[in-house]
Amino acid sequence: MQTLLSGMMSAQTVDNKKPFLNKISAGLLVVIIAVSAGLMLSASSQESAVMDELAHIPAGYSYDRYLDYRLNPEHPPLVKALAALPLLLLNLNFPLQSTAWQTDINGQWDSGNQFIYKVNDGNADTILFLARIFPIILTLLLVLFVYWWSRRLMGPLWALLPALFTGLSPNILAHGHYVTTDIGAALGFFIALFAYSSYLDSPSKKKLWIAGIVFGISQVLKFSTVLLVPFFIIFMLVHWWLKSRESQNKIFSKESFKILWKHFVSLILIFLIGYILVWMIYGLFTLNYPIQRQQSDTTNILVSFGGGFDPTWQKCPPHGLGMRCLADIDIWMSSSPIFRSIGHYMLGILMVIQRAAGGNTSYFLGQIGGHGWWYYFPVIYLLKETLPSLILISIGLFLALKRFSIHAREHRRNLISSYLSANFGIFMMLTTVILYWLYSMHTTLNIGFRHILPTIPFMYILATFSLKKWFSNDSIYDQQFWYAKISLAFKNLLNRSLKTIIVLFLALWLIVEVIISYPYFLSYFNEVGGGVWNGYKHVTDSNYDWGQDLKRLKTYVEENHIDKIAVDYFGGGDISYYLGNKAVPWWSSKGNPADQGINWIAISANTIESAKATPSEGYVANQADTYPWLTIGPYARAGTSIFIYRLK
């Protein structure tokens, strides 16, 4: 094991002593980041607001300008607050006098519609474009951190491969330019694991503070990062076990418990630093949120949580362990000047738990239902991940399993501990991917590929790490005769050349995939999944249609001189803002618009596929909502996601 560790260290030292390679690698990284930024900025300028942006943008603006957190508490503030910073440079109005702000409980959707489309004199597209700048920056930071950690593990040139696959992933390009918390989740998981791995590798006070601060930042990016708490505990225990074995201490010895105590204290300090930062950030954004209003909003939001209000606290220990106890504690915290900021953070987590428990109506593989499918995420991953990425990951997995089986036969006794000691960062990534996927497959909230984004960069690194070992697997020069050595050298050169061609081919294929799918990154499906034009047949929502094509519908209506069109739209755009009096809001139960002299209708893919789907077990569809009168196919499309029908 010591030989292996020293080998890794020497390999890294060699990489760091190659300034030319470092410069080449840095230059190519700049190109990857620049291309990724250009693609996202260009796509952003062409798209209307997606569904969640309608809530997130006004919420972030209200946090920054008014330090009031009444809108959108079910998501943490950092992405939204950063996204709204450029908007402070504009002289924008905010609907402070509306009922959505004054009296509604979490009136985020109405506030968003008024802020973006009603009270700011036709500046909706400017607001959207500026608000998306910081999410794009966060995406580019993710690419940079992927490169940084990969470089530590594999050297500068190999680090480019996971950086390329991250920066040019159509799914990351799609969600990387929206004001949503999904790319924030990917960044939060990545930097938190990176910081904790760095601390465990070589503990110091500086690295402990960095790990704590980064953990706190991750918690205000997306609530799914709360999973880092049990993940970190697992990593701490495994690392303690490894350290005990390295010190040749028995697992239950006094010396071993000393090591455990140090690990435990350091992790508690990391959590403490992180949650103090959470408390401070939430404290800032709730500064002008009236405490009476916060308590009232919290009470109303959690009114049915865990079975409803429990004035006797009988559901709390020692009487019980019901989830309602957490809601009642949170309501109490919301009324405390000291604890109300952390109470608002807790409210968001409880809202996520409540929504996940309730499920979500989804269209999936010809069915519609709200119970969720355990195989939802594996299927959409295989359909929406690029084929070169799937091949890269498959090769990496196959090679890793092959090496593991060989080593298992040769080094049975210390295989696990030796491997983990030499590759603890890789172990952290692999464990995170496995546990996160198991959690995702268990939940009933099936609303998109975006929910597994945090695992995607780790998969690229794991695959690349495995490939690098494959490249290093050359034949040994142990032959005595010069012609045998030449033969082996030629064989190794040929093997490396073929391997290099495979990797370069996959990278080139990825670039071609991005070119072909531009600018319809949200609707991206691979060739097996039907591509950007047919992926909707398998699954919709944020996988394909989130409302991004309303501006393109406007262009189609203008170019084809359509005077009147019925519109059944799913998304964050405003029909009247883009189409004016040419559009008539429509839905299935209103009947055929041709009966009222309207010869065109536009329907979002999410709506029409859900309407035509077969109800899954337990789901009851309203026949009036299934478009039974629409018996023709689409005449045209606006972008990929809005179907246009010519009725006469």
Per-chain topology:
Elements: H1 2-16, H2 19-46, H3 53-66, H4 78-84, H5 99-102, H6 108-118, H7 124-131, H8 133-154, H9 160-167, H10 170-175, H11 182-201, H12 205-219, H13 228-246, H14 254-285, H15 291-301, H16 324-334, H17 340-358, E1 362-364, E2 367-369, H18 376-384, H19 387-410, H20 415-422, H21 424-442, H22 456-471, H23 482-517, H24 531-534, H25 550-559, E3 565-568, H26 575-579, E4 583-585, E5 600-604, H27 605-612, E6 614-615, E7 636-638, E8 642-646
Parallel strand pairs: 2-6, 3-4, 3-5
Antiparallel strand pairs: 1-2, 5-8, 7-8
Helix pairs in contact: 2-8, 2-9, 3-4, 3-6, 8-9, 8-11, 8-22, 9-22, 11-12, 11-13, 11-21, 12-14, 13-14, 14-17, 15-16, 15-17, 16-17, 19-22, 19-23, 20-21, 21-22
Describe this structure in words.
The chain has 648 residues and is mainly α. Among the domains are: 47-131, no CATH class; 191-285; 469-517; 532-646. The chain contains 27 helices and eight strands. The protein has helices at residues 2-16, 19-46, 53-66, 78-84, 99-102, 108-118, 124-131, 133-154, 160-167, 170-175, 182-201, 205-219, 228-246, 254-285, 291-301, 324-334, 340-358, 376-384, 387-410, 415-422, 424-442, 456-471, 482-517, 531-534, 550-559, 575-579, 605-612, and strands spanning 362-364, 367-369, 565-568, 583-585, 600-604, 614-615, 636-638, 642-646. A five-stranded mixed β-sheet has the order 4-3-5-8-7. It has a three-stranded mixed β-sheet with strand order 1-2-6, with helices on one face. The chain is globular, with a radius of gyration of 27 Å. The N and C termini lie far apart (76 Å).
